[in-house]
Amino acid sequence: MAMIFAKPSMRTRVSFESGFSLLGGHAIYLGPDDIQMGKREETRDVARVLSCYNDIIMARVFAHQDILDLAKHASVPVVNGLTDYNHPCQIMADVLTIIEHIGQLEGTKVIYVGDGNNIVHSWLLMASVIPFHFVCACPKGFEPDEKTVEKARQAGISKIEITNDPKEAVRGADVVYSDVWASMGQKEEAAHRRKVFQGFQVDGNLMKLAGSKAHFMHCLPAERGVEVTDEVIEAPNSIVFPQAENRMHAQNAIMLHLLGN
Ligand code: CP
Ligand code: NVA
């Protein structure tokens, strides 16, 4: 497997690399300075050349179009390891974690608090397939992509709500989910976002409002004391580490599926 990383990573890199070796494969890490896709060489050429040496390609890129171009021109399966638009492997692992800790995703209430980002888009796409109640509570102006919200609503499978009121949103949650306020590629906006996102920190009070059945989830890495407090990550109802572990198991299943086993 060729693993293309235009951005940093711990979980995605190590879970794919360790996971693929557990399956008997070998993974090659290609960091931001290695192939410089789109700069040193066109994406369509990278796709065709890597397809000659590998059975599968995994890529973490900035522009979503890059993963679409890779998939279009590669002759082997291409797995999305995060783009600016979405992060499907993360949400597959999250659903596995919910199944393990709550029993099933169907019928649960998943409340995301924070930026309407790539994680939210993958939750919305999941909500187009499996019926559950998904709420995104984000500051005004930081809502998820409208077309993706519309697509999830049009699917008519799940209840979808987008709100600017985290306190109201979390009541009765099965899962309160958080992510960084400034994603990779937006770090220069971090200071501004910290001001705008006041009131969207998941802290002990917000978890109390959520109620006793609420689990806390976060895709990690977390900025403790920013979008979530230490207390919440370390609480017994926090399932962030089993969630991180499940990246590997969920992705192994995806790779076995793609490689025909
Ligand atoms: N959750 C996640 O994708 O983590 P990394 O950025 O460390 O891969
Ligand atoms: N939204 C975050 C997720 C990191 C796993 C980012 O894109 O940086």
UniProtKB/TrEMBL annotation:
Residues 106-257 form the Aspartate/ornithine carbamoyltransferase Asp/Orn-binding domain. InterPro entries: Asp/Orn_carbamoyltranf_P-bd, Asp_carbamoyltransf_Asp/Orn-bd, Orn/put_carbamltrans. GO terms for molecular function: amino acid binding; ornithine carbamoyltransferase activity. One of its GO terms (biological process) is citrulline biosynthetic process. Signal peptide: none annotated. Residues 1-100 form the Aspartate/ornithine carbamoyltransferase carbamoyl-P binding domain. The keyword Transferase applies. It holds the Pfam family OTCace. Keywords: Transferase. Its EC number is 2.1.3.3. Belongs to the aspartate/ornithine carbamoyltransferase superfamily. OTCase family. NCBIfam families: orni_carb_tr (TIGR00658), PRK00779.1 (NF001986). This is ornithine carbamoyltransferase.
